[in-house]
């Protein structure tokens, strides 16, 4: 059996792909492990609406009862959102095991990229990518998202990486993996809640059409993808020093409680939301929406090329 036999496209996605109309992939770990219910559901629906508003078809990706689903029904989104934390967080390496037992899972950026490429999609929007964790020189905790970006021909729009990660090491690792990183109207790799990080991006693009041309070239060159860094809108950016302090506290707690491996990111995301009384959640929603809109604009340009 080929992996493609595990794919189920929604009718809307299948039609759009057949007619070469623009489609934007969206991940589902942001729903199952990135935000609490019901904000996660609200976000998932808002991202789909943002993509549709710009003239592209949204394709939220998850594993449902052993099938790689591209484009979810509203009831399925709702079910995943309610299971928040109570369902598997699937990275690429988990996909075969989850599929073998007919299970369901939220897919990380890495797993979503894999499924999206299998389905023939070109572009994907998320909030923040995984990266190299602080202290990785001891733990080796480097997100599979970065490796996947190095070997899968997909363009991913993100708002950079949270400073729960070591952004400098993340940027270095992206270079090692051959990932084409570009800034959308910015010259620094953004730090999720903040628009800057102090780490330069070599390639800046100011328009969706130019980005679309670059993405097509990278698809020829390969083997990896393009990471488009799109800073959080000014009006929603949080005070970098204040959030930095909270993140530092959350990391200390995680270590004290022995949180490790794939549980680290969800734990830190949850604690930061609690510590900032939801302000970080609002920022997260705003930047994810901004990314979905940009991805849709680029998808429209890709379909025109
Ligand atoms: N960063 C966020 N929000 C998220 C994630 C990361 O700000 O929801 C999720 C994404 O799905 C990402 C995953 O792919 O966490 C990375 O997990 P890990 O660090 O275990 O690779
Ligand atoms: Mn990890």
Describe the structure.
This protein has 305 residues and is of the alpha/beta class. It has a single domain, classed as Indigoidine synthase domain (Indigoidine synthase fold, 3-Layer(aba) Sandwich). Helix content is 47%, strand content 14%. It has 13 helices and eleven strands. Strands 1, 2, 3, 4, 5, 6, 7, 8, 9, 10 and 11 form an eleven-stranded mixed beta sheet that branches. A hairpin with a 2-residue loop joins strand 3 and strand 4. Helix 3 runs antiparallel to helix 4, helix 3 packs parallel to helix 13 and helix 10 packs across helix 13. The longest helix is centred in the last third of the chain and has 26 residues. The mean pLDDT is 96. Bound molecules: pseudouridine-5'-monophosphate (PSU) and manganese (II) ion.
Radius of gyration: 18 Å
CATH evolutionary superfamily: Indigoidine synthase domain
Gross geometry: globular
> Which structural class best describes the helix and strand composition?
alpha/beta
Determine the mean pLDDT: 96
Count all strands and give the number: 11
| Distinct ligands | pseudouridine-5'-monophosphate, manganese (II) ion
Number of helices: 13
What profile does the largest beta sheet have?
Answer: 11 strands, mixed
What CATH architecture label applies? 3-Layer(aba) Sandwich
Distance from N terminus to C terminus (CA atoms, Å) equals 34 Å
Q: Percentage of helical residues?
A: 40-55%
Topology pattern, helix = H, strand = E? EHEHHEEHEHEHEHHEHEEHEHHH
Can you tell me the CATH class? Alpha Beta
Number of domains: 1
Beta-strand percentage? Answer: 5-15%
């Amino acid at each position: 059996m080929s992996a493609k036999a595990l794919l189920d496209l929604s009718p809307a996605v299948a039609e759009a792909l057949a007619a070469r109309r623009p489609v934007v992939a969206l991940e589902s770990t942001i729903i199952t492990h990135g935000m609490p219910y019901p904000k996660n559901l609200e976000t998932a629906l808002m991202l789909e609406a943002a993509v549709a508003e710009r003239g592209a078809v949204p394709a939220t990706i998850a594993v449902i009862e052993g099938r790689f689903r591209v484009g979810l029904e509203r009831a399925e989104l709702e079910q995943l959102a309610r299971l928040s934390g109570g369902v598997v967080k699937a990275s690429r390496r988990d996909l075969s095991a989850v599929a073998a037992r007919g299970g369901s899972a939220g897919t990380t950026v890495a797993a979503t990229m894999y499924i999206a490429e299998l389905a023939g999609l070109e572009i994907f929007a998320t909030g923040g990518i995984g990266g190299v964790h602080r202290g990785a020189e001891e733990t080796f905790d480097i997100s599979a998202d970065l490796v996947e970006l190095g070997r899968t021909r997909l363009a991913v729009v993100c708002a950079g990486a949270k400073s729960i990660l070591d952004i400098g090491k993340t940027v270095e690792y992206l270079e090692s993996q051959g990932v084409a990183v570009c800034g959308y109207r910015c010259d620094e790799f953004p730090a999720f809640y903040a628009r800057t990080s102090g780490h330069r991006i070599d390639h800046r693009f100011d328009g969706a059409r130019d980005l679309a041309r670059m993405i097509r070239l990278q698809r020829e060159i390969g083997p990896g993808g393009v990471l488009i860094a799109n800073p959080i809108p000014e009006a929603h950016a949080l005070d970098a020093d204040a959030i930095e302090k909270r993140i530092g506290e959350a990391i200390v707690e995680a270590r004290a409680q022995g949180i490790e491996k794939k549980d680290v990111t969800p734990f830190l995301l949850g604690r930061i939301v609690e510590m900032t009384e939801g302000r970080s959640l609002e920022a997260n929603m705003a930047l994810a929406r901004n990314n979905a809109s940009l991805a849709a604009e680029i998808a429209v340009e890709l379909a025109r090329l």
